[in-house]
Amino acid sequence: TDGPLPLYMMHAGPGSSKGLTGLVAAFGETRRSIAPDTLGFGESVPPTPEEPDLIYYADSVVRIWDMLGLDKVDVYGGHTGANIGMEIAIAHPDRVRKLVFDGVALFDPALAADMLENYAPKIKPQANGEHFIWAWNFMRDMGLYFPYYMRDKEHYLGKEPWPTASLHSSVMEVMKALDHYYKGYNAVFRHKTHDRLPLVTVPTFCMAHEADPLHTSVEEAAALVPNSEHLVLPFNSG
Fold this sequence. Notes:
By secondary structure, the chain is of the alpha/beta class. It has nine helices and six strands.
């Protein structure tokens, strides 16, 4: 094909492609950059199964590629998007030229089980509006602790709280997906990432910012992918 391949970008949960606006604009100056909302987030419809796995999410992305006529792309995925990208690359290595993980979820089994139990509770709208308060605290604490529900010194990220305007925007994204946001999270917590990473054969770049709690997994993830490089961006890199 003439020029660079299209870049397909997948956001982190529980947000939407709004969080990738800056990157899409920057990359879009030199190549076609596409960032739809992941199934069940933003303006996308929710997945039908109660417990969809990441292969289900990956298949939904490939269907988008087919509809858009995208034969081969470079793939960028942040957090949940990274794990989905992993499954796409495993199932369709002929359609992924290069893969970028921006924070890949690689948890030990005990932590994954604990997060499956506690991280993403099912939330329903309440008459007194307490689900709004839950969403605000959910996102606020996510910026301060990891996992967010372990609010102690050991799990404190050492960061200032997110700016109120940014927090409000994130809370609005959670509210859009309130009835089903947990499906994407739990798919990641059930994912056998340690077993799946060695099956990725396409060139892969594992990265994260030090401010991202998943940066601790970058080196381990890269070691499991046969053809990979890795980098952790320092705090002062912006």
